[in-house]
Amino acid sequence: MNVYYFDELIVSEIKKKNEVALRELYKSHYPMIVNLIRSNNGTEEEAKDIYQEAVIAFYEKVQQPDFILTCKIKTYLYAVCRRLWLKQLAVKKRYHGNIQETETFLGIEEEMVTIEDNEQRFIRMRESLESLGEPCRGILEDFYMHDLSMEAIRDKFGYTNADNAKNQKYKCLQRLKKLFFATYKEDLP
Amino acid sequence: MNADQALYELLDDYFSGKLTAEDAEAVENKLKSDPDFNAKAKQHKAMRDAMKFYNSRVELKHMLDSAHLEVEETKPVVLQPAVVSGWKKYWPMTAVAASIAMVSILGTLWMTQSLETKQTAIYKELRRNVDQIKHSQKMLMKDIAQSMDKGKQPVPGKYAGSGFLISSNGYVATSYHVVKEADSVFIENEKFGRQKVTIVLRDPANDIAVLKLMNDSIAYTTRALPYAIAKDEANLGEHVFTLGFPREDIVFGEGSISASTGYSQNPNSYQVSVPVNPGNSGGPLFNESGDLVGIISGIQTETLGAAFAIKSTVIMDAISKASLDTLARPFVLPKYSTLKNSSRIQQVKRWKDYVFVVQVYKN
Predict the structure, then answer these.
(1) Domains identified in chain A, total number
(2) Is residue A128 one of the residues assigned to a domain?
């Protein structure tokens, strides 16, 4: 039996976007990370944020079609959390060098770049949407994220006809684009 | 609706796959041929992706938050309040450090103390050795005191040792420690009987004493001594003999020079393998040719067969420095041995006339 048997099981379930599997994964490794963060000048709240970021990164990684499990999920999560926390400590200038630097996690460096990029992208989008304000945010979210039809949006936001709604959506999109790309530089493929 | 808006409508439809196959192909063709359109399309796609990504993350976060609530609900261990600071944070470490420090300090103390006691043990041992030597040397004087206490009458000497004539006109050599506490000293042997003597030379450093016969008449009747005093140091392995009074009767002992230094490398004495006992102190040590080579002085306890004798050269030094002789009684040192070729029995027969038991009286 594969040593990663249970991990493989979890991964295959997460690939199918099984919420239960993700919940189980989340619950099973959380204490380890709480311990790591708390024993290195962190609070439980911070541990939660770091851990969620790591789990999300893992989840997104698993969603990639070419994903192969190369180490235990636990190891991966620990490594990512550790790196994320080190970075945060450096920012906060609270780091006293308590986290063991002797461990090396293969390929985690590239991993971290991706994770940070994604986090960056997420934060920029959130900030952009927040500064966009209503009703633009609602329209764009409904159209692009929740895949509502223009008719439904028209009804929801009380526009007299679909063209008005489309017009509004266009203007909102241009504003959002301006906001988003002003702060976030993405390498276009 | 302006052209740009229509373009984005088209792109949205294209990306979400709502276009017909023909229209989609048209768009793709335009993407290839029109770079400006292509750039806009790419940017729009990135925008759409970012938004989709944002959405999925938000949903994921919601899911994890709800999972986290479960964690909090089922959290088995009550964790201590987060971020303890200052003294509270460091006290366990401090306690550990303090206890380690305490252990090491106490350990060091204990270790050094044990070392010290070891050293004092050596020192004590050494002292005890010295004590024992002293003791043994005292013992060599033979504890007549005990028998005196028991017998009361007649009152014998407090200590006893041996002695021998060193000058034919009535000078007797013995060990200093035999007579050091003396109030009065008597010598006695078969030939001369019991004679009172006075101490004329005390040399504690070399453990030599010279006694002088009070009775002039006896002193003058003595013939020349049958032994000379060896002027050179005896050789290692040389056969040596002694006569002494470890008991009431004279006792002969023989052995050899086993070392040319004495106790703790004392260069003034020999180590000899002659069996000696308390009472032998001050006895003469002769070699085979009948010369005097030393005076028995002590033994080392805890070592088998190690007795010590003051070298004759040291005796000579001590005597010549002391200027003992007077006009009335010149100090006549024996010049040569007359018993060189005699048998041992003959030698001993002659020697024993000049060896005395030295009795020391002390209040």
Answers:
(1) 2
(2) yes
A92 in contact with B, Cβ within 8 Å: no
Q: Is residue A31 part of a domain?
A: yes
Nearest CA distance, A106 vs chain B (angstrom):
26
CATH number of domain containing A55: 1.10.1740.10
Distance from the A5 Cα atom to the nearest Cα atom in chain B, whole angstroms: 23
Of A22, A163, A177, the CB nearest to B47: A177
Q: Which domain holds residue A171?
A: 122-183
Which CATH number does B151-361 carry? 2.40.10.120
Question: Measured between alpha carbons, how far is A48 from A37 in angstroms, rounded to an integer?
Answer: 9
pLDDT digits (tens, 9 = 90+) for B298-308: 877 766 778 88
Q: pLDDT (tens digit, 9 = 90+) per residue, A82-94?
A: 888 888 887 776 5
Same-domain status, A9 and A70 = yes
Catalytic hit among B136, B162, B167, B207: B207
C-beta separation of B105 from B242 below 8 A: no
Q: Distance between CA B163 and CA B357 in Å, rounded? A: 6
Burial class, A105, CB count within 10 angstroms (exposed 0-12 / middle 13-18 / buried 19+): middle
A44-63 and A108-132 helices, crossing angle to 10°: 100
For residue B167, list its beta bridge partners.
B171
Residue B61 touches chain A, beta carbons under 8 Å? yes
Assess whether A89 and A162 both reside in one domain: no
Query: Would you call B83 an interface residue with chain A, using a CB distance cutoff of 8 Å?
Result: yes
Mutate to test the interface with B, among A10, A13, A17, A23 (most CBs of B within 10 A): A23
Instruction: Say if pTM beats, i.e. exceeds, 0.80.
Output: no
Interface predicted TM-score (ipTM) of this complex, two decimals? 0.76
Residues A84 and A166 reside in one and the same domain: no
Is residue A69 included in any domain, yes or no? yes
- Domain co-membership, A9 together with A88: yes
